[in-house]
Structure formats: C-alpha cells, structure tokens
Write a structure and sequence with these properties.
Elements: E1 7-10, E2 13-16, H1 27-31, E3 34-36, E4 39-44, E5 47-51, H2 53-66, H3 75-88, E6 94-102, E7 115-122, H4 130-135, E8 137-141, H5 162-174, E9 179-183, E10 189-192, E11 196-201, E12 204-207, H6 218-229, E13 234-236, H7 243-246, E14 249-254, E15 258-265, E16 268-269, H8 277-291, E17 301-303
Parallel strand pairs: 8-9, 8-15, 12-13
Antiparallel strand pairs: 1-2, 1-7, 3-6, 4-5, 4-6, 5-17, 6-7, 9-10, 11-12, 11-14, 14-15, 15-16
Helix pairs in contact: 2-3
This protein binds 4'-deoxy-4'-aminopyridoxal-5'-phosphate.
EC number: 2.6.1.42
GO biological process, one term: L-valine biosynthetic process
Cofactor: pyridoxal 5'-phosphate
Length: 306
C-alpha cells in the first residue's frame, strides 16, 4: 500500500496530508488546467541538496505564464515551501512536486478562477526500477504521436499534456516494454512519455530539438552542459525514427528517470545491447554531482534548509 508522508504545503502553509483538499468542481480537475514540476533532493557528502530547485520552479512560472495563470505566491515563497516540506517530513532523498491549479470559481473554460498552489514530497527511488539504470530498458515507438506545436504547447509542463504521456506510457507497459517513445506530428522523433532522448553516434550525443514537441528538460540541459564541458560533442537536431535502430547507444533522461539506458527499441538491439561507454560516462558525470565526483561549478545543488 502507498505510504503517504505526514505533511504537505498547501496555499501558504504546512498542513497534514489529509487536510490538503480542493473542491471536486475545481477547474483544473475538469480541464487539465494545472502546471507542475518534478524535482529531486539527493543525499550528498555535504548533506541533502535539492537539484536545480530554482531552475525547476522558474519553469513552473513559465508554464503558468503560457496558460495566463497568475500564481498567488512568488518564487522565493515557493522555493522556501519546497525546503520546508522536505525538512518537515524528515526526508533527505526525496522527490518534490510543486504544482498549481485553477480552483473553484465558475464553470466556463475561460473562467478566471482562483489559483491554488501546493508542494508535496515523498521518497522516490529510480523511476523505471533500480536495474534499469544498470542494464537499460526495452522501449518501443508509440502508436500515439505527440501533439502538434500549434495545438498544445509542449514547452509548458501542464497537467493536460500528460494525457498524451499516459497514452504512450500505458500502451508501452501493456505491450511489455519499459517505456514508450513518441514521434512528433512531423513524423520525426520527439521524446519519451516523460523523458528526453539522447542518441550516440561516433562518440557524439544527438538529441531532438525543442521544436520537436518536447519538454525542454532540465536533466537534458544538465547533460548537454556536462558533456560539452567534458569534451563530448552535443548536436541538437531533427532525427528520424530509424536512427533509433542505427545509433551506437541510446538513453532517456529526466528528473524521475535520471539517466536510463535503452538496450532495445521495437525488439531491435541497440548497439551491443548494454549501456555503452558514452552513456556510462554521462551517468558518471551526472551521478557524480551527488556523490562528489563531479564538481558542482554551476551552483545546481541547493543545500536543504530547515
Ligand atoms: N519530457 C517530459 C514530457 C517530461 O514529463 C519530463 C519530466 N519532467 C521530461 C521530458 C524531463 O524533464 P526534466 O529533466 O526537467 O525532469
């Protein structure tokens, strides 16, 4: 059974988990009008630290701006709430979920309802399973495409977008795959259900561009930055589906999935069928941020306060 933490931040204060309720007629529940973030807090040699908290929360405000939602609390208040809720629950290794949604206040699609905000946190290990980080997963290309850029903006991390992610992920699991990869409406590669994609050709990283209906991931940006700083070439470019079958290595990344190698796509083995040297190097650089092997030169680790 799911174990819930004791405390949650809701509309400006810390409350008991069971007391953080919203009305069943909240706009967000009916129309998908919510925005959210997923952030991890890691145990580091210098104590627990929230990884790129401010960058994630800035993206939350950007998502809200796209949907014309004026959030009732500012960035500093939200950052403080994130620290407070982790500390209050006595967690050190945790997943954080700040979110905002249109609440109760009218029935129309364009109703300017009051906006509620919350921050939840809980313990979370590797999203696709402990073994996935080591051995990789089997993925498939989904029969569902991502939305066209003139329909729903993929650059907003909004609740409604995740109807697409659910179709892709649930289809993949139903067919026995670890995760699904979607094509954009152009027919070119987009991203995973909840992860960005990297392909390796001749030692260089190739990743799909933000114009390919994907979320501009903070893990993606971390990898691009670390790779370039360590002499690994990174190319952002349109990629056709068949390159999944031709690349030397393949992995997906995201806050939840971290860096998960992909060992096969649509039943075709990728490279040697196990995580290759570039994937391993990127994993080392990334996880090294949390065990001290990689220097945090960008101030990405925000030490847990409270
Ligand atoms: N794409 C989608 C659709 C996602 O939901 C996520 C997870 N937030 C990502 C990519 C990866 O983004 P990030 O690295 O910022 O977690």
């Amino acid at each position: 059974m799911q174990q819930y933490p004791d405390w949650i931040w809701h509309n400006g204060s810390i409350k008991r988990w069971q007391d953080a309720t919203t009305h069943v007629m909240a706009h967000g529940l009916h129309y998908g009008s919510s925005v959210f973030e997923g952030i991890r807090c890691y145990e580091t040699p210098d104590g627990p630290a929230i990884f790129r908290l401010t960058d994630h929360n800035r993206r939350l405000y950007a998502s809200a701006r796209i949907y014309d939602m004026a959030l009732p609390y500012d960035l500093d208040t939200l950052n403080a709430a994130c620290h407070e809720v982790i500390a209050r629950n006595g967690l050190t290794r945790a997943y954080l979920r700040p979110f905002a949604w249109r609440g109760l206040g009218g029935f129309g699609l364009s109703a300017d309802t009051p906006i509620e905000m919350s921050v939840a946190t809980w313990f979370m290990g590797p999203y696709l399973g402990e073994a996935a980080l080591e051995t990789g997963i089997d993925a498939c290309v989904s029969s569902w495409q991502r939305f066209a850029p003139n329909t729903i903006p993929a650059g907003a991390k909004a609740g409604g977008n995740y109807l697409s992610g659910q179709l892709i992920a649930r289809e993949a699991r139903r067919l026995g795959f670890g995760e699904g990869i979607a094509l954009a409406s152009t027919g070119l590669l987009s991203e995973g259900a909840g992860e960005n994609l990297f392909l390796v050709f001749d030692g260089a990283l190739h990743t799909t561009p933000v114009s390919a209906a994907l979320l501009n991931g903070i893990t993606r940006n971390t990898i691009i930055t670390l790779a370039r700083e360590n002499g690994i070439e990174v190319v952002e470019r349109d990629l056709p589906r068949e390159y999944l079958y031709l690349c030397d290595e393949l992995f997906m990344c995201g806050t939840a999935a971290e860096i998960t190698p992909i060992r096969s796509v649509d039943g075709r083995q990728v490279g040697a069928g196990r995580p290759g040297p570039v994937t391993r190097r990127i994993q080392d650089l990334f996880f090294g941020l949390f065990d001290g092997r990689t220097q945090d030169t960008h101030g990405w680790l925000e030490p847990l306060q409270g």
